[in-house]
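FAQ
Q: What does a multi-component entry look like?
A: The components come first, one per line:
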Amino acid sequence: MTEAVSKVELHYLETGTIIANKRVGPDTWCMTVEAPKITAAAQPGQFVMVAVTQGATDPLLRRPLSIHEINKSRLGLLYRVVGKGTTLMAALPENQPISLLGPLGKGFQIKSSPHHCLVGGGLGVAPLLYLGQEIRQQRPDEQISILLGARTRSELLLLEQYEAVAPVSLATDDGSAGQHGFVTELLARKVRGKATIYTCGPTPMMQGVAALARQRNWPCQVSLEAVMACGMGACLGCTVERAGFADNDQKYVHVCKDGPVFEAGEIWL
Amino acid sequence: MTEAVSKVELHYLETGTIIANKRVGPDTWCMTVEAPKITAAAQPGQFVMVAVTQGATDPLLRRPLSIHEINKSRLGLLYRVVGKGTTLMAALPENQPISLLGPLGKGFQIKSSPHHCLVGGGLGVAPLLYLGQEIRQQRPDEQISILLGARTRSELLLLEQYEAVAPVSLATDDGSAGQHGFVTELLARKVRGKATIYTCGPTPMMQGVAALARQRNWPCQVSLEAVMACGMGACLGCTVERAGFADNDQKYVHVCKDGPVFEAGEIWL
Amino acid sequence: MAVDTKVSIGAWQLANPIMTASGTFGYGEEFQPYVDLTSLGAIVVKGISLHPRPGNAPPRVVETASGMLNAIGLQNVGVERFITEKMAMLRGLGVPVVVNILGDSLEDYRELAARLAVIDDIAAIEVNISCPNVKKGGVAFGTDAAMAARVTEAVCAVTRKPVIIKLSPNVTDVTEIARAVEAAGATAVSLINTLIGMAIDIKTGRPKLANIMGGLSGPAIKPVALRMVYQVARAVKIPVIGIGGISCLADVVEFMMAGATAVQIGTANFINPALSGALVSEFADYLEKSGRQSATELIGSVRV
Amino acid sequence: MAVDTKVSIGAWQLANPIMTASGTFGYGEEFQPYVDLTSLGAIVVKGISLHPRPGNAPPRVVETASGMLNAIGLQNVGVERFITEKMAMLRGLGVPVVVNILGDSLEDYRELAARLAVIDDIAAIEVNISCPNVKKGGVAFGTDAAMAARVTEAVCAVTRKPVIIKLSPNVTDVTEIARAVEAAGATAVSLINTLIGMAIDIKTGRPKLANIMGGLSGPAIKPVALRMVYQVARAVKIPVIGIGGISCLADVVEFMMAGATAVQIGTANFINPALSGALVSEFADYLEKSGRQSATELIGSVRV
Ligand SMILES: Cc1cc2nc3c(=O)[nH]c(=O)nc-3n(C[C@H](O)[C@H](O)[C@H](O)COP(=O)(O)OP(=O)(O)OC[C@H]3O[C@@H](n4cnc5c(N)ncnc54)[C@H](O)[C@@H]3O)c2cc1C
Ligand SMILES: Cc1cc2nc3c(=O)[nH]c(=O)nc-3n(C[C@H](O)[C@H](O)[C@H](O)COP(=O)(O)OP(=O)(O)OC[C@H]3O[C@@H](n4cnc5c(N)ncnc54)[C@H](O)[C@@H]3O)c2cc1C
Ligand SMILES: Cc1cc2nc3c(=O)[nH]c(=O)nc-3n(C[C@H](O)[C@H](O)[C@H](O)COP(=O)(O)O)c2cc1C
Ligand SMILES: Cc1cc2nc3c(=O)[nH]c(=O)nc-3n(C[C@H](O)[C@H](O)[C@H](O)COP(=O)(O)O)c2cc1C
Ligand code: FES
Ligand code: FES
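Then the predicted structure of the entire assembly, as tokens:
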């Protein structure tokens, strides 16, 4: 495949090299890929489309995965093995080439704020690590908190990485770690005064977070998922509904190009 | 997949383990699989149907490969990387499970003969190693000769293995090793008197060998290929035309079940 | 909890909805090492014609993306030898046997059905109407509603066995054909037969199949098959048997949710010869785990 | 040796036979980082209707075995805004632009074609007739030869641009529709549009697409597409544009051997956004290496 650069949005079709691909938790893997062009352009909240097969046509489509970490010219992908694409990914050996398309989409906006609060649930924690690192670097004097939720303790992954960035508070559905209950309750209790919220995770969690943010008048950015074919605005497949638009051609936005990060008020969660 | 045994024809659906999978020549690989049930039942000239993917549906069908070698509970497959199935096979790592169906088909008949002559061309050499070993064991006092042909020297593979069984004569199209020319010429020149011929390779080569055998009144067994879907007589896909049959339901035989080894006079080559 | 896996095709009750598709399961015996045949709902044998047929010249099969093309050309021993040579063995298998028939003319179908009507231990007749009608210039019976109805009438008139009409997907409106054969007396319909396809070998510049075109089967066609089963199940009252790319339990459940009373496993038998048997037990487990008491609860349960 | 990659669609000459398919290449600009657009034969833009359309509710796409289903619902900005907002950008791309149109009625098609007839730098009109005819109770224009012919006549009457009629594969006899639109004045036909398919999420018991059914595309459908191109190329004298699952140079060659004058790359753009551009040079190389002087030697060259 040709390696070329998008003048418009600066994304690349890059054949990276798998540096590591390891299991890091129940059904969860972390893949590190050497990909100098994509890493140089990446912003927190953006994603890549990963080709999980070579030569074969099933699975057919690339898989969207958030950029979890950037380490010089290497990027980290944190992914849960849920179906045939991710199963194949988990079996890929080191040193093998892998085709990535990215960085794609609009990531998080990092504006000045007294308190940056990152709220993640499940695999939604993936994009928050890189986000936290970038806020720390761009706004070294502003407070950062990380709130992570999971069903159970064993699903809370790579905590040290997050703790290296900012103080982390935990919530689990079964109480096996941190607060017993939802990460939303943690947010309601822990964060007072002005704050900016960044959230990624299961839809009900993000709905709860966005509702609280609206109530408390916090700016809130949500990172969405949708089934994607192209990842670059060509297929119009990855729709979410805009808030407050009539039944016309403005009714929908596209997660891959207009997102994946949106202002919570912009879309119907 | 269930592991079960055919009462009728003694073949198995067995999940073997890849012991080794190495490149042995230009585009050619050898895979060793631990598969105790199939190896225990295998006869020279039989083949296995190999599942090259797991979970994915492309490539869809199993791939037929001859049994090249049997070493206790391990079998060797010698294969050329020609398309997407064999490309995927060549990338399979050691220790990985692999599903095999076999041993399938009717192999070579080893009857008493003053001179057993094994004539192979290209990857058609694959089944001849195991055949030679079996003849050596079953008929230790009878003469064996192995005649191998290839386009060029680098395509003559694993010669030591064949030489360990019997004297080997070579022919190459470009004269880079052995006789300059076809293996058929070698056969015409080298073999005098009574002999039994076993041949596997490109169709024109087998036609030449079979024609010479007919002329000299040598019994001749040919090993054929055909595109296969099931490998076990269920799809009726792998047809070759019988010699001397009218246009009725006896017109065709099936390579997977009636073959792959036939008496040369039985079919139209 | 004992779940009830039984389903009914007219008066015929199957132990479970798992059948094997015509032309993909030999005469059953090839699969005996891998499948407890007596556990299956039924097996459908390779299509039988009035006279023996040699089938097409090779190559007869070619792989495509997640599918395969076949042009076997309906090779078979003919009804006479089927009855004398194959039926005894089939009876011994301990599984309901459906005989698939095909003809070049209405009379062929009628005579085939009449010959088989008197043979014990044939559970049902499946009528392949995707064959070209020789008398009508080669147009397939299955692509014309009136012709399909006439074949159905001809067969139903001479047999009291359940008659399953196997529908071709190569039509503009499959529900029209389904309604026509229902009105003509069919006990059930099965679908889909293969989609017509082609492949060319660019090295030789020739079609990859000697017959030029062939029938496309396998996972590639599943979405089309599922759509047609859904449409037909809403258009007719008789049972629908779903076929097309079924390769795992989830596929079986999808087809039943779409409206199928039973399913047939085809091409997937080639990849995993043990599949059909495995699906029988997986299906019972699934019913139990999903809290259903009976297989019939699944049929047509998709919520749209 | 300079090989001649040019092909002709009526009076319109394309630099080479590689086009991109409607709905799979955005408005071209998305692919600019990966493809030298000026090297392509042409691009076909997403279908345009008379009025803006929001498209269907999500989910709109789902992957299937070697394919995908889409139910985008023809989301587009409408012809007015297409002309004012998109045409300037498209002109700047330096590649012939084909505009794909769709309507709910004959009048829609006529008006769309008339509006576009006067716009410079539109190389051709491609007419998507796989849309339901609202006035005729939702039956697709493309599944009825007479209706397809009337759409063709309506469009041809109001434009002097080449008119390409895009055929639906969901029909009993695609050659009948092709002959009808040829007789009605079409410059060329393109095929295939998507096959209708469906998928069900067994966990929720609901269809995977909000729209219930969608269009199947990708490598899975290639054998069906190739067969239809072969059939249509033998049935009509106008050029045929081949579409369906084309993913590599060998696929391009197969379609041209089957009778296609040009091809369109669809779903494969999503997997490899650089593909269409790469095929342009691979195609020229192939012609040269295979000892052909001109692309036209390939068209319909399959030997049967
Ligand atoms: C912008 C974006 C960023 C993402 N980032 C991450 C990440 O960092 N880590 C991670 O583990 N996952 C992430 N996902 C989800 C990931 O793309 C899917 O889990 C993956 O594509 C599943 O592929 P598969 O072949 O294994 O599963 P499939 O076999 O395709 O599907 C298995 C199951 O997963 C569901 N599924 C498939 N694709 C999606 C999807 N796009 N969204 C939601 N559910 C889906 C299916 O409905 C099915 O139930 C992201 C998705 C998007 C859109
Ligand atoms: C009984 C039998 C025994 C065989 N033993 C061996 C063996 O020991 N070693 C070995 O290297 N090969 C052997 N073959 C051939 C081998 O099966 C094919 O090379 C292999 O299936 C190709 O798979 P692929 O996916 O890589 O190629 P594909 O992508 O499927 O095809 C690539 C090319 O190979 C051709 N091809 C595919 N399948 C066959 C086939 N069955 N026969 C002939 N040509 C084919 C195709 O037409 C195409 O041109 C045997 C075949 C049979 C029938
Ligand atoms: C090799 C082969 C042979 C077939 N022979 C017949 C046949 O004789 N009669 C018939 O009605 N269908 C026949 N079919 C069609 C299948 O029964 C089934 O309808 C079709 O393959 C779709 O199901 P699948 O995708 O699960 O294979 C055959 C299919 C294949 C692959
Ligand atoms: C996401 C998507 C959107 C499409 N939109 C249109 C469209 O607007 N108009 C049209 O005529 N065809 C449309 N098509 C059909 C394609 O142009 C093409 O005919 C079809 O996908 C088959 O080709 P392929 O298998 O190469 O994708 C669309 C296809 C896809 C996958
Ligand atoms: S995934 Fe194609 S437009 Fe978003
Ligand atoms: S491969 Fe199926 S019968 Fe031989």
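Q: Is there any commentary attached?
A: Sometimes. For this entry: The mean pLDDT of chain D is 95.
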